[in-house]
Amino acid sequence: MAKRNELRPVIKLRSTAGTGYTYVTRKNRRNDPDRLRIRKFDPVAGRHVEFAEQR
């Protein structure tokens, strides 16, 4: 059985372009205690946009 690690929780990154596209990833709470914002490719928009952490 997989160990559930609370230091690296699973988070959803939602596109700020309004397309509704999401990425699922993990983050390290010790290094990034605030909400994460990353520029990634949005295939619905067809370009790189900023993705923000959704809780």
TrEMBL record:
Any Pfam family the entry gives: Ribosomal_L33
Gene Ontology BP term (one): translation
Keywords (A to Z) from UniProt: Ribonucleoprotein, Ribosomal protein
Keyword Kinase: no
Top-level lineage group: Bacteria
Keyword Ribonucleoprotein: yes
GO terms under cellular component: cytosolic large ribosomal subunit
One annotated GO molecular function: structural constituent of ribosome
HAMAP family the UniProt entry points to: Ribosomal_bL33
Annotated family: Belongs to the bacterial ribosomal protein bL33 family.
Stated name of the protein: Large ribosomal subunit protein bL33
Lineage, top ranks: Bacteria, Bacillati, Actinomycetota, Actinomycetes, Propionibacteriales
